[in-house]
Amino acid sequence: xxxxxxxxxxxxxxxxxxxxxxxxxxxxxxxxxxxxxxxxxxxxxxxxxxxxxxxxxxxxxxxxxxxxxxxxxxxxxxxxxxxxxxxxxxxxxxxxxxxxxxxxxxxxxxxxxxxxxxxxxxxxxxxxxxxxxxxxxxxxxxxxxxxxx
Length: 149
What we know:
This protein is mainly alpha-helical. It has helices spanning 26-33, 37-46, 63-77, 83-122; strands at residues 24-25, 52-53, 59-61. It has a three-stranded antiparallel beta sheet with strand order 1-3-2. α1 crosses α3 (63-77).
């Protein structure tokens, strides 16, 4: 993108900071991504980006889609990654995001469980007088099934 004085500057968009609202028509999304609208159609067919659809079938893109399109362009032009590789990278980044969310959920559940356990123990449970834990038992129990007949 060029400033008023003609110098180029880069724009970085964090995927977390952009909207998922599918409101941008293809021409606007293409302009924001620095691409031709036909390129967006091709990327849609390849599954690199999934725009929303209007009832008439028109594509609608979100800010997150535009950020993804910019990343596709960067990987392709600057890193030399082919489109199949980019698609795989996008899939793997999605899996990583899902796994990070799962870890965060499990960590939160662990904190809740430990808190609840501390509350139960503070209330005097389990009662050690009902379930002696330090006694050494030497009893042997033999079980033999009965024949039904």
